[in-house]
Amino acid sequence: MKNKKSRALLERALMHIPGGVNSPVRAFKSVGGFPPFIARAQGAYIWDEDGNKYIDYVGSWGPMILGHNHPEVREAIAKALENGTSFGAPTRLEVEMADFLCDRLPHLEMVRMVNSGTEATMSAIRLARGATGRDKIVKVSCCYHGHGDSLLVEAGSGALTFGTPSSPGVPKSLAADTLVIPYNDAAALERILDANAGKIACFILEPLPGNVGTLLPRPGYLREVRALCSKHGVVLIFDEVMSGFRVAFGGMTELSAVTPDLVTYGKIIGGGLPVGAYGGKRELMKLVSPSGPVYQAGTLSGNPLAMAAGLAQLKVLDRDRNEIYPRLDAITERLGNGVKAAASLANVEITVNHQGSMFTAFFAKGPIEDDASARSCDTARFAAFFREMLENGVYLAPSQFETGFVSCAHKDDDIALTIEAANTAMKAAARLTR
Fold it and tell me: What are the tens digits of pLDDT across the range 173-209?
């Protein structure tokens, strides 16, 4: 593919942007090569600055569930733009958004708008600490909840050890209050809650992890988690920044029939514009300032452009949910089966996990159900597969440990072309020796 313009842009970016990118995974460090700079998008496709066209399975990391540049979303933004971009004051649109969410999601009694998934998770944790008067939190080793200091922590030498910072700049004192356990291990949660009785404010997890690739909860796991948190007076927070409105209209909260105390959402409720939200039980949310003592604020929170775009997208999902979600599940399963067949023909060992329109092809023998099994993947083979897919016009997440997303705009022909590209790419992966 042509790449002259993207190469030139990367060289310029390296002069004034750390690593040439504004979010690390975009740098392609784990897959080699260099990133194409994207110029425009429509439906299931993106085009780079050199004019190369790709079938896109990143979807701005999930929110483009209707496809890029959906006409109803675009028109809603244009209409809102006529009145201005931001006021830093209450608007009708944010009230309509709150009404819409709380009327349709039984687990939301009140909701607060913020500007990102990171802000949502940070705020939910602060609220849990304020409500309980406790400092410690529990997180899962493979779940990413944004770049807040308390959350940039990974496991130490054992499942029940105190966390250690996974980035310079994170104070050890904050890490000491973050306890880390494996995903899909309710017994580990029970042990850590027993060992720290009366000290833990919340347990935060992605009910469907997507930031180590797509992992599926074992049957009964989320119900056990709910019961343990209730027993110990611990606030249960579901991070549905990825899975919310993605795997079902009500996300994993709906699919699991497990109700968290608080839940967080991200860009999907803004039609892809910067936005986030946290909400849940009224008794907790009423503690948020100005109705309560737990402070959280944001000048751009509930801004009219994001609210207009989000309401347009969510109304389409709500209106057509009985058609949208079964179709997304079916075509994602078809894609996964095609990739598995391509791997089998090339004698490459993979495991495909998918839930709804989220999927990951792990280059390892399954089952892949926690951090340890995901880390067993052959990342070199994934990188070879990724580069060949890109060369054949398929844009995947540039990391073995990220989730792919199918949108309503992906047609049967797009899936067929992707599987055809996978047959070629698996051959490239097979040529690598371990």
Answer: 777 899 999 999 999 999 999 999 999 999 999 999 9
Q: Is 144 a catalytic residue?
A: yes
Whether 50 shows a pLDDT value over 90: the answer reads yes
Within 308-426, strands assigned E span: 351-355, 358-362, 394-395, 404-405
Within this chain, do residues 88 and 220 fall inside the same structural domain, yes or no? yes
272 and 365 assigned to the same domain: no
The single residue of 45, 144, 183, 221 carrying the catalytic annotation is 144
pLDDT (tens digit per residue) in 336-386: 999 999 999 999 999 999 999 999 999 999 999 998 999 899 999 999 999
Q: Is 267 a catalytic residue?
A: yes
pLDDT confidence tier of residue 248, bands split at 50, 70 and 90 = very high
291 vs 127: CA distance, rounded Å: 13
Cα–Cα nearest to 228, from 256, 262, 253, 203: 203
Give the CATH number of the domain where residue 33 resides.
3.90.1150.10
Contact assessment for residue 103 and residue 110, using Cβ atoms and an 8 Å cutoff: no
pTM check: above 0.90: yes
**Dist CA 394 CA 129 (whole Å):** 44
Residue of 57, 265, 267, 414 marked catalytic: 267
CA pair distance 68, 43, nearest whole angstrom: 5
Domain boundary among 290, 319, 348: 319
What would the pLDDT profile of 313-331 be if each residue is shown by its tens digit? 999 999 999 999 999 999 9
The residue from 48, 56, 185, 239 that is catalytic is 239
Res 166: pLDDT = 65
**Does the pLDDT of residue 160 top 50, yes or no?**
no
Residue 359 sits at φ, ψ, to 5 deg, of -150, 155
Average pLDDT value for residue range 395-422: 97
> Would you call 295 a catalytic residue per the annotation?
no
| Cα distance from N-terminal residue to C-terminal residue, the chain | 28
Domain span at residue 173 reads: 71-319
C-alpha torsion sign, points 252, 253, 257, 262: positive
CATH code, domain with 310: 3.40.640.10
Same structural domain, 81 and 39: no
Cβ pair 288, 127 in contact under 8 A:
yes
Which of 40, 57, 53 is CA-nearest to residue 407?
A: 57
